[in-house]
Write a structure and sequence with these properties.
about 350 residues, alpha/beta, Aspartate Aminotransferase, domain 1, Aspartate Aminotransferase, domain 2, seven-stranded mixed beta sheet, three-stranded antiparallel beta sheet, 12 strands, about 40% helix, about 15% strand, globular
Length: about 350
Amino acid sequence: MNFFFAHHTIPRPVLPFEPLNGWLPREGNFESEIKEMVGGRKEDHFLLTEDRGSANFAALFSTYVDVVRETGRTHLLMPFGEHPSISEGIRRLEKFDVEGKVLPLNSQGQLTKKVVDEHLRARSAMLSISWAHDLTGVVQPIHELYDITKAKEVSLHVDVTHAIGKLFFQGGFDLLTFDGAFLGAPHGTGALISQEKVVPNAFGQAPHSPALLSALTDGVARALDQIDQMALEVARLRDLLESDLKKVVPDCQLFFREVERLPNVAVVAFPGIHAELLQLALQRTGVWTTHGDGRLAEVLKACGFDPMVAHSALSFSLSTLTTQEEVEKGVALIAETVAALESISEGVLCS
């Protein structure tokens, strides 16, 4: 039996859309439906993309064409530890006279209004940020950031892949992107929605398909329908996971409990055991979690946490499919695995 605590980082469709052969789409104005559900406007541009990566790069490249090239404002900003689909996209554009600027996080993993205000310059073109971090679950103060960027005529690009169906939000963006695979829609679906200042470039555009658009629309709708369950039952199971782990592994360290975070994500460190080793060992027992290929540790260190602790941290993410039985059995397996690894991991962590 597998105990899948990596729903937030690994697409796992739960709707019967794959394969699409023989599946008939319903009728509807899908683009308008999606824009309305995520807080967009009727006149906003819509681009169906293949995934979050192509959506985010389309947002970056479109901004490069319509803003950077036209105005000479060459600075693209992002917070430290941003998703690779954003950070790598900006890095690629640096070959074309774009300057990527990485902004520091506070001790709770948030990008503050004060930091953004201090770093915006006359040459700033866009701030690109995930509404909620995929590994820490920390929710960014998007509306505060939007007030600052709007006042200084800087575009705000928000990736809401991990916020849809978990947070209540409306508006507060110039460009918005998401990956349908994390919403139960088919793999290979995503979207970019932008307001009039930036016209989406077809770079990364998915082939026009009423079936894919219909499936993506239904995925967004299903995710939004589950928001109450996320906020109540899944959050309760997340808290149970944390409290039970603390009982059976007293030395474990819990993060980001004092800041707004997603209801399904927990970050837990097991000092003395390297995260990569623990993740592999847990997978053999059927417990799936992630350290984000080391990215989680880098974010924790940027927040000021001890490097030795940061390198022992894992991200756990639950879904509406998670049961209390899974949490309880998963905690028992984690405790057994941690006990088995403590002796052989002693002294091998590096900063």
